[in-house]
Design brief:
Number of helices: 8
Protein name: Carboxylic ester hydrolase
Helix content: 10-25%
Shape: globular
Largest sheet: 8 strands, mixed
CATH topology: Rossmann fold
Radius of gyration: 17 Å
Enzyme class: hydrolase
Number of strands: 10
CATH architecture: 3-Layer(aba) Sandwich
Oligomer: single chain
Order of helices and strands: HHEEEEEHEEHEHHEHHE
Structural class: alpha/beta
GO molecular function: hydrolase activity
Strand order of the largest sheet: 1-2-3-6-8-7-9-10
Distance between the termini: 29 Å
Organism: Celeribacter baekdonensis
InterPro entries: AB_hydrolase_fold, CarbesteraseB, Carboxylesterase_B_AS, Type-B_Carboxylest/Lipase
Length: about 260
Amino acid sequence: MPLRPARCVMRSAARAFLASPLRHLSSEGGSVSDPFDLHIQGGPAALPQKDLSRAGVTGTTCGGVECFYGIRYGRLSKPDTPRSAVTPASGQLDVRHLTEVPVFPQLPSRLEALMGPGIGENPQSDEAFYLNVWTPEGGTDLPVMVFLHGGAWVSGGGAARWYRGAALAAEGMVVVTLNYRIGPNGHLEEDADQDPSDHRPMGDILTALQWVKDHICDFGGDANRITLAGQSAGHGTLGPWLGGRKPKACLIRLRF
């Protein structure tokens, strides 16, 4: 089946993202037969899966979508100093499911009461500079959407099952979700004279975007068609780009 035009994909993106978090719930609170959800939760997959590799990154394919989890984009410049600057890095965790990808330290999310399990099972780490990629099997030169999670800047993560990108990738686009620092590690100022432009979450996001710009072609994406989107706090994080206060080399489009 031919891939849908990028314009049609972008129009349906918001609808798909809003609908997908609830797909794993039935009226009794149990699982339903969503093969993407079963794959991500680590349950018995309804569709065949196979291991694969792109540019040295390993993943699996399920239902025509390739899934790559726990890709490292950065590290702390000063190990064991959670509020130090991020520096670019590479590598990948040996994981097969989103629930195995670490997120930054946080309390349990209140959203789970409404949206179901999100990241409550995920490990937590001060070095959770990871991103995840979903891409249509065999796709090339596809539009890319990088999604910034919400959570009031104190919770959330790119590995939340609410933000799984398989359904959108099946529409004909590459989807990337990422972690950025939250809570005290992201926002606590070291002193009153700290430069306000030295914003740790923004530095994390820029580092991740540079990884996407440099490597997304290896996953079937077009590095010149990157859309940055966000929900709640992730949406608010887009503001500095609108004001022209951040470099635009990594960024082509914004979506709200």
